[in-house]
């Protein structure tokens, strides 16, 4: 588990949130499916709502709570 530094949070926001309130073009359903398909993870589990229930906050929680080798694979997986 790694604490995300402020500049890293900004980088994640720049990559995943082209518009305020959006994480790429994911709907709730496609966001959930992305994490199930690529990481076998239920992103809507309570463990990932620690920072809040928005998709961006769940994404940050996933990156912080996952081992670095897993969290570092999120961005490349969006390019597939």
Give the number of DSSP strands.
0
**Largest sheet entry:** none
Question: Structural class, judged by helices and strands?
Answer: mainly alpha
Strand portion:
under 5%
Global geometry: globular
Given the structure, what is the number of helices? 5
Instruction: Return residue spans where pLDDT drops below 50 for at least 5 consecutive residues.
Output: none
Could you state the order of secondary-structure elements as H and E? HHHHH
What is the mean pLDDT? 88
What percentage of residues falls in helices of 4 or more residues?
Answer: 40-55%
Give the total of domains. Answer: 1
Q: Ends: how far apart?
A: 25 Å
Summed up, what is this model?
The protein has 80 residues and is an all-alpha fold.
How does this model look, in words?
The chain is an all-alpha fold and 80 residues long. It has one domain (6-78). Helices cover 54% and strands 0% of the residues. It contains five helices and no strands. It has helices at residues 6-16, 28-39, 55-65, 68-71, 74-78. 11% of the residues are buried.
Architecture blueprint of SSEs:
Elements: H1 6-16, H2 28-39, H3 55-65, H4 68-71, H5 74-78
Key structural traits:
mainly alpha, globular, 5 helices, 0% strand, 80 residues, single chain
């Amino acid at each position: 588990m790694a604490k995300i530094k402020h500049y890293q949070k900004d980088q994640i926001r720049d990559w995943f949130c082209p518009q305020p309130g959006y994480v790429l073009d994911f709907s709730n359903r496609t966001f959930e499916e992305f994490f199930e398909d690529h990481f076998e993870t239920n992103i809507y589990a309570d463990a990932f709502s620690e920072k809040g229930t928005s998709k961006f906050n769940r994404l940050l929680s996933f990156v912080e709570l996952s081992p670095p080798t897993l969290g570092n694979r999120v961005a490349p997986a969006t390019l597939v």
